[in-house]
Design goal:
By secondary structure, the protein is an alpha/beta fold. Helix content is 28%, strand content 26%. Strands 3, 5, 6, 9, 10, 17 and 18 form a 7-stranded mixed sheet that branches. Strand 17, helix 12 and strand 18 form a beta-alpha-beta unit. Helix 5 crosses helix 6. The longest helix is centred in the middle third of the chain and has 12 residues.
């Protein structure tokens, strides 16, 4: 079968890869119907030293059809349409069963397509460990593309808004208007934010945020504009979704006293000049982390079914899997109009 393979810095290619096989009785095999590129995949694409292996299949966002199940699988059925959580857990300990994969008591939390340990889902098929837990039926009324956004991006955006403690009537900023940042702008309004400032250096992305009702700002002017708009009180909640240290620094400069910053942008920098004195004197709450995807499905599925959230609107490119290398390059170079790319095997 075919899959997208990481060979080195900016070198992702379509190649022949081994067919996935049942390795454990609880595994399932899913024929991928659609997969997508996440902003965090760009760390791999750009050869971040954290990812020091090569030759593995990338990708962690996919939906598809179950084609094979292990003897220990009880919930999934061959022929079932499923969405695959990017956050993988053992599926049997109490935290995993509650959806909180990061607290897996068996220390089996992982993600597809980050190394040779668990092959990625940007391929024609993928092995899903503990398939009863790590894959779920696509809910009634949701399209494949809506379900695809739920495998990581939409859940992570909502998780970030919770980290930033966005609440009704709040003054909010979202820094970094990639797909997840734009989803977070929409989420913030659904959570009741009174005003959302959307910050990014790319004009096209700021325009999309404006269409969602946000006040769009360039990073170079954000501090002064927000200081004036809030009469110096600054903001109740700031979400950093860019994954660069300068964005986190900006977030800390925009938040008000005894208020909240959430950081979900993947930042693998080995160091950061942490302003501990500022946080201490101003009583700032800073929360950083990654999302346990399954725990957010019960919240998000009804909002999408009701049309209150439309994460699929940020899909801008639909391509064949064979065009994956070109899709990576376009996303990395921030080609005009490029946000979320969906690849179809």
């Amino acid at each position: 079968m075919k899959g997208l393979i990481y060979q080195g810095k900016r070198d992702i290619v379509l190649a022949d890869v081994p067919e996935p096989k049942i390795l454990d009785d609880r595994d399932i095999i899913v024929a991928v119907k659609a997969c997508s590129i996440c902003g965090s995949d760009l760390h791999i694409y750009n050869g971040d030293t954290f990812f020091d292996q090569t030759g593995y299949c990338v990708g962690h966002e996919a939906v598809g059809e179950v084609v094979e199940i292990g003897r220990g699988v009880h919930e999934r059925r061959v022929g079932e349409r499923v969405m695959i959580s990017a956050a993988v857990g053992c599926g049997s300990c109490p935290p995993c069963l509650a959806g909180v994969v990061l607290r897996c008591e068996r220390n089996l939390q992982q993600c597809y397509g980050l190394s040779n340990q668990l092959q990625g889902s940007q391929a024609e098929a993928v092995r899903v460990p503990a398939g009863d837990f790590n894959a779920a039926p696509i809910p009634e009324g949701l399209t494949d593309e809506q379900a695809l956004m739920l495998t990581d991006a939409a859940a992570t955006a909502w998780f970030g808004c919770e980290l930033a403690r966005i609440s009704p009537g709040g003054q909010v900023a979202v820094i970094g208007l990639g797909p997840i940042g734009l989803m977070a702008v929409e989420d913030a309004f659904v959570m009741g934010a009174a005003r959302v400032f959307a910050i990014d250096p790319v004009p096209e992305r700021r325009a999309i945020a404006s269409s969602l009702g946000a006040v769009a700002l360039d990073p170079s002017t954000a501090v002064d504009v927000i200081r004036e708009a809030t009469k110096g009180r600054m903001l109740d909640s700031v979400l950093e979704a860019a994954g660069v240290s300068s964005a986190l620094s900006l977030a800390l400069s925009l938040v008000g006293r005894m208020q909240n910053v959430g950081a979900i942008g993947v930042n693998l920098s080995p160091s950061f000049d942490f302003p501990v004195g500022l946080l201490f004197m101003h009583g700032i709450n800073l929360a950083i982390g990654t999302c346990s995807v399954p725990s957010y499905w019960p919240k998000l599925v009804p909002l999408i079914q009701q049309g209150r959230l439309r994460p699929e609107q940020f899909i801008t490119n639909r391509m064949a899997l064979a065009d994956g290398p070109r899709a990576y390059a376009a996303f990395d170079q921030r080609e005009a109009g490029t946000l979320k790319s969906v690849l179809v095997p």
